């Protein structure tokens, strides 16, 4: 793989990782969703990204976790797959498996687009999180209250 292609693939993975970890940290208060104890520090793919390349950058196939659960998942994926099925359902899991049967080789343009998309998604997500709560206008004194 040429150097430019490697850099683009690395940038795409970094953007995916940052986006997924940020969202999971917010959703699970910084704790690993699998053990509920340790801080989120890593991510892994439900269906291995080395063998199922088409789903490598699909957020439905990625879970953020602590290092310990990441290490356990690498050796025994059953508990994390069970967690995934309980959270998202059997249908979603089976859909991933079916889609993973397709083959795809990423191009330089694909990697660049993926990195840009996840960077934009993260910026949009952060702006929504940082937006102030909508303020309800006070009712005028002559309007009856319910």
Provide an overview of this structure:
The chain contains five helices and two strands, in the order αββαααα. It is mainly alpha-helical and 146 residues long. It has a domain at 3-103. The chain has a two-stranded antiparallel ribbon. The longest helix has 25 residues, at 3-27. The protein starts with a helix and ends in a 16-residue tail after the last helix. The mean pLDDT is 87.
Summarize the structure.
The protein is built from 5 helices and 2 strands; from the N terminus they run αββαααα. It is mainly alpha-helical and about 150 residues long. It has a two-stranded antiparallel sheet with strand order 1-2.
Question: How is the topology of this model organized?
Answer:
Elements: H1 3-27, E1 42-45, E2 62-65, H2 67-75, H3 78-88, H4 90-100, H5 108-130
Antiparallel strand pairs: 1-2
Number of strands: 2
| SS-based class | mainly alpha
Query: Strand order of the main beta sheet, please?
Result: 1-2
Q: What is the N-to-C order of secondary-structure elements (H for helix, E for strand)?
A: HEEHHHH
Rounded to the nearest angstrom, the radius of gyration is 20 Å
Overall helicity: 40-55%
Indicate the overall shape. Answer: globular
Unreliable parts: none
First-last Cα distance: 68 Å
Largest sheet: 2 strands, antiparallel
Task: Summarize model confidence as the mean pLDDT.
Answer: 87
Instruction: Please tally the helical runs, counting DSSP H or I stretches of 4 or more residues.
Output: 5
Strand proportion:
5-15%
